[in-house]
Amino acid sequence: MHNVSVRARRIGLLLLFLFLIAVLLTHCVIIANINHECIGYNCPICALLRSAAAFLAQIRLIACLTAVAFASVCWITRVRLSYGFQVSSASTPIGIKVRLNN
Fold first, then answer.
1. What does the CA dihedral 14, 15, 16, 19 come to, rounded to 10 degrees?
2. N or C end of the chain: which has fewer CB within 10 A?
3. Residue 95 falls inside a structural domain
4. In this predicted structure, which of 17-21, 42-46, 86-90, 91-95 has the lowest mean pLDDT?
5. Which has the closest alpha carbon to 25: 51, 62, 64, 46?
6. Across residues 78-101, what is the average pLDDT?
């Protein structure tokens, strides 16, 4: 069981490293080609810049959606746990204050 968690952690770190490299290289491509000499219609460098900007926009959208989903799960879990503890504590004989005589 321990080997599975170590392997999953390594795969996660590798994916995180690849993700950061992709974002860094995309920014480098945009910075390097921002002042290129455009040839007009169907410029390959402009197409490259548009695709790099689209990639960064998708990454930003994914990051925002992940943050919203995480916050929603945390809020729902907090509400469910607080509600669950109130209901469970009141439904016990001690919570209802029932005297158990033989």
1. 120
2. C
3. no
4. 86-90
5. 51
6. 65
pLDDT, tens digit (0-9, with 9 covering 90-100), for 8-64: 888 888 988 998 898 899 889 889 888 888 888 888 888 888 898 898 888 888 888
CA distance 102 to 98: 13
Compute the CA torsion angle 80, 86, 89, 90 (nearest 10 deg). -130
Residues 6+ apart with CB under 8 A from 26: 52, 55, 56
Terminal Cα-to-Cα distance of the chain (whole angstroms): 49
The pTM for the full model equals 0.56
* Domain-embedded: residue 99: no
Q: Which range of residues forms the domain containing residue 23?
A: 2-90
DSSP class of residue 40? S
Residue 10 lies in a domain: yes
- How many domains does one find in the chain? 1
Tell me, yes or no, whether 100 lies in a domain: no
